[in-house]
Amino acid sequence: MVDLVLFHAQILKEWRIELEGKSQNTIFQNPTVVKLGFVSFFADVASEMLYPVTPIFLTTVLGASMASVGLIEGIAESIASLLKTYSGSWSDRLSKRKPFIIAGYFFGAISKPLIGMSGSWSGVLFARGIDRAGKGLRSAPRDAMIADSVVPEMRGAAFGLHRGMDTLGATVGPLLAVLFLSMNPSDLRSLYFWALIPGLFSVLILFSVKEPTHLQGEARAWKNPFAAWGEMSPSFKRYVFAWGVFSFTNSSDVFLLMKAKASGHSTQTVILLFCAYNLTYALSSPWLGQLSDKISRKKLLVGGLFVFALVYGSFGLTTTPWHFWFLFLCYGIYMGATEGVGKALAVDLAPKNRKGTALGLLGTITGICTIIASTVAGTLWDLAGSTWPFIFGSAGAILAALLLVVAINKDESEKR
Questions:
Q1: Is the N or the C terminus of the chain less surrounded, counting Cβ atoms within 10 Å?
Q2: From residue 373, how far is each of 78, 239, 278, 316, 392 by CA, in Å?
């Protein structure tokens, strides 16, 4: 773990040297990006302690079906998705990001023990709803604050660093869960209460984050956030459509974990697989984000989608235990090439004063499609077997990659 921290420190040092001539506001010197990275680190320690455990908790402790797991994830993500556009647009109108970010992370923290207290899957649904409401409140304003805090030439690096630190927390969290379960193998409920501690710590850090000074005093008249769709560039609209097609078939990652579990892995091994995925994601995201500042972001996204298609197709067909280690590592590369890079591209293609709204629209539209994907995946799993949710996702990624190739062509000059 020390080596991983030193690795990220070396990345920061190299970015500082390379970008010194372009801007005094380097990633290394930018307190907003770094602090938000630590906020996401601790929040993800809390969340990812539980993420690989929750589907197992639902199915083995509470007796929920896979269709119920898909329904919970779909409804929870729908809450987050619908709030993203409104919180992003509202933060644009007020020219304030911080209140939304603090409230969002606080909701996420207090939701953890509520899951542990649940006696049925409906209780988990309620708690997950609170958690995802927090995500919906904070995500677009936080990402807009990151974009506000750096020059356009450094957006990919900023989002890549943030996703790397976020995912480093997602690596540490499951390892803590493995340590806890090794001492208390049958006590899943207590884990949800321990997760409250890093969640609250992330909220405390936020009070030291300052709003970007150039936003102050720029409050604007209210406008329906969905009406702002008309202000977006044609390439932004085509990009969101292509990504929405992908999201329509991209179900929750809980199905990857349950596939590994169904193939004979122990709970601890499933968590370690999830750690391997997050570690690859954390290592690749800063590099690929920085790379996207130098080459076409679209090329990275298309490449990432083809990696996803290959990985998902393989998940559906394999039952060999060691294959899952390789597939989870490759899945981390897909995430590193798409998550932060996709947000940077959305900001590139959005009007300058609508960053929060653009990021919210992207999150809402793709999130609503993910609701359908998770529900369909759970139903396919129950009715047709565990292979078909992954074949469905693989086909959707290929179609979306082809759409993305033509989605941003000559209008890509609008970038930056």
A1: N
A2: 11, 19, 22, 16, 9
